[in-house]
Amino acid sequence: MRMKHLAACLLVAWVLLVIGFMILARTLDLEIFFVLWLIGILVVVELASDHFANPRHLQVQKFVIAAGVVLFGAIVARKVLEILAR
Amino acid sequence: MIRRTILAAGVLLGILCLAIAGMHAFSPLLYSPAFDSRAPDHVNPLALKHVTSERSARIIPLVADIIGTPGSLVLNIKSGDFASASRDLQEYRDSLRNLDTLVIQLDLDEGEIAKFRRAGRENAQILAELLNGTERWDDLKTLEVRFRESGDTAMETSVRYEGETLKRKIQDLYREYLEQDDVILSTGEKFELDTSGHKKSITEFREIVNSITAGDEEKEGTLAGPGDLPVSLNVSPDRASYGDTVRMEGQVKAAGSNNIGDIALFVDSARNVTLRTGPDGSFSHSYRVERDRAGTHTVFAVYEGSLFSPIESFTVEVIPSFLQLEPPRVQSGKVLCQGTLFAGSQPVTGAPVEIRADGKRVATAQTKDDGTFSAQVRLEPGTYSVRAQFEGEGFPLLPSGSESYEVLVPVPPPAGVDGKGFFTDPLSLAVVSGFLCLSGAGAFYYLRRRRHGILPARTPPPVPEMMDAHASVPVGEQVFPPAPPAETPPEPGLPLQEGDVRDVSWQELFRRLRVAVSKVASLRYPQSLTPREVCASCRDTRIREFVCRFTSGYERVMYAGGDLPREEKDRMMEAYRAVLGILGGKDH
Questions:
Q1: Which residues in chain B touch residue A29, judged by CB atoms under 8 angstroms apart?
Q2: Any residues with CB less than 8 A from the CB of A67 and at least 6 apart, and which?
Q3: CB-CB: which of A27, A28, A54 is closest to B524?
Q4: Nearest-5° Cα angle at B434, B428 to B439
Q5: Rounded CA gap, B366 and B493, in Å?
Q6: CA B234, CA B283: separation in Å to the nearest integer?
Q7: What is d(CA B194, CA B203) in angstroms, rounded to the nearest whole number?
Q8: Are strands B295-303 and B405-409 parallel, antiparallel or unpaired?
């Protein structure tokens, strides 16, 4: 199995695990799901990246991660506003 | 074809999922048992059971602590171990505070738990006063003996009066403690908890009261009657309620003086007011009942610090309070709640009134002199059941609540529609901008950090002039084959020697091939790659066959120590040209 296929499988497994635990906990929260997905893809990309090679599929992933980090900042800002509004 | 179809289906599915998720971006909590446990039109027994068991598991230990702690607390007070009693009291208060926090977290502010919390708070207040009162009682007994032995009659009388006040106060505390009994025991039985601690505290409390009363009965005869004292005092009426005025009047009948002087009135052993007597020694004072606890209150007067009146008393009775809430009005996202609090015909002043939305306290307003209160509450868009509640703590009044109103808080218009909203709120704007800048900087750093290893875009190396370029290309600029015979590609049968210029030509060809391949495969450090790594790096590409053919021959030339036949060398050159041709060489 090639590295990128393995990475994709790992990420899908992580996402399914998160969804499974959310269902078991009877709480479905998109924010938590998004943050856990972001953590998962960060770890997978770091593990899959080679010191000597930077394949094209990983180059795309890093832009996805960068967008995810910006979205994460928006989520944190939203939470801070909620706390301030109390 | 199948692979592309699967890929396209996956992409479409992903876009669909993102679109559905995006629809819920502003309310990301899709489901929780609290949402589903109870709704206006249905009850989910499974979710309700889950919520109830979760709440019970967190509340029961605290309730058990609150029920059990008073047992040891009152026992310590009775045995005179006031340090341990203080620790127990602090523990009791901490448990109550934790319960308050938990109730807010779990959104449980109604019903049994609310009554239990109220009773617990009352008991904490009673036990604190009992602790202070008992400690003071012990001090008073010591002081009384000391003043009696020293012959200081005035101080002895003062101490005795204070003791009398204290005795009545502790009796009242016991009665109030018994009033909380039902709620505490019923809650304990409901949660199937051990209530022996609370029952034991009642027994010990009664014994404390009995011991104080018994000790005082011995001194009953020593207290002077009204006729013996030079200061008379009359208190009327003897029963009063919130807002009533109690008249305290009397006369100084000291012989041999003009009877004009200062007279201090003490209510519950605390100096309430100092008056100037009239020419005939009379005095009067109107005392308004407001924040006085329900029960008996003692009054006595002291003229010039030495002459005492008899002890009189009046009783404050608990009466109902009436809380009225006007229909709440929604103004620019805030709910304006106004109303009045009365006790009979008397307005209640300075009383805390809680505003509750769906049973949860959202604001506390203070009543003014005319009994009115007003509070502005910010609520999220939605429908709420709003009501006001007065707990009556600290007042001789029963708790009361207003009627409930359904209030609809509309969704605010989007920003920019009316010039108000998110983008005009500087705080919101600053917070969002700040976090977006921070996260943007983080994302930029992440991208930059990864860019260090990316190779700069380079054009593929030019295909060298081949066999027909012998003399036209200057030595040093032409890679292969060099113009002189000594710089031509290795001929069959010629041994390769170290430092031979023909070896340099093959090496240069390999270096160029390696750079070209590394660009295709995005290899970071091409100079470090071996021929086999170069071959392996272009798997699944069209150039793989040619690259591997070249590197295979190159290995044999460089490492096997032998020479290659002319046909083999030609195949290597063809492979080289093919690779560069596929990658966009100038001869294609």
A1: 28-30, 32
A2: B443
A3: A54
A4: 125
A5: 109
A6: 10
A7: 16
A8: unpaired
Alpha-carbon distance B416 to B513, whole Å?
60
Cα–Cα distance measured from residue B352 to residue B357, given in angstroms and rounded to the nearest whole number: 16
Distance to chain A for B508, nearest Cα, Å: 22
pTM for this prediction: 0.51
Q: What is the DSSP string of B372-389?
A: EEEEEEE--SEEEEEEEE
For B46, the enclosing helix (H) or strand (E) is helix B45-79
How far away is chain B from the Cα of A63, in angstroms, using its nearest Cα? 7
Q: What ranges make up the beta strands (E) of B180-305?
A: 231-236, 239-240, 245-252, 262-267, 270-276, 282-288, 295-303
Tokens of B85: 């009693």
Q: What is the mean pLDDT of residues B356-380?
A: 87
Which chain A residue has its CA at the smallest distance from B438's CA?
A: A73
Report how far residue B179's alpha carbon sits from residue B118's, in angstroms, rounded to the nearest whole number. 12
Residue B587 to residue B578: CA distance in whole angstroms: 10
Q: Is there a contact between B549 and B534 (Cβ–Cβ < 8 Å)?
A: no
* Continuous H helices in B483-563: 501-521, 531-537, 544-559
Dihedral of alpha carbons B255, B256, B260, B265, sign: negative
HSE at residue B232, side-chain half, CA atoms within 13 A, is 9
**In sequence order, which residues have a C-beta less than 8 Å from that of residue A15 and are 6 or more positions away?**
A37, A40
- The secondary element (H helix, E strand) that includes residue B148 is helix B112-150
Question: Which of B522, B527, B529 has the highest number of chain A CBs within 10 A, making it the mutation to test binding with A?
Answer: B522
pLDDT at A2 over 90: no
* DSSP track, A44-76: HHHHH--SSB--HHHHHHHHHHHHHHHHHHHHH
pLDDT classification of A18: cutoffs 50, 70, 90: very high
SS3 B460: coil
Q: For B485, which DSSP code? A: G
Contact A53 B521 (CB under 8 A): yes
CA distance B531 to B544: 12
The closest alpha carbon to B302, from B338, B342, B256, B267, belongs to B267
**What does the block give as tokens for B205?**
């409390």
- Considering only residues B425 and A9, tell me which one the structure prediction assigns the higher pLDDT: A9
pLDDT digits (tens, 9 = 90+) for B519-560: 777 777 777 888 888 888 887 788 888 889 898 888 888 877
Are the C-beta atoms of B373 and B352 separated by less than 8 Å? no
Question: What order of strands is seen across the sheet that includes strand B245-252?
Answer: B231-236, B245-252, B282-288
With contacts defined as CB-CB under 8 Å, which chain A residues touch B32? 26-29
Report the alpha-carbon distance of residue B201 to residue B78 in Å, rounded.
10
B562 φ, ψ (degrees, to nearest 5): -115, -175
d(CA A8, CA A6): 5
Position B486 pLDDT exceeds 70: no
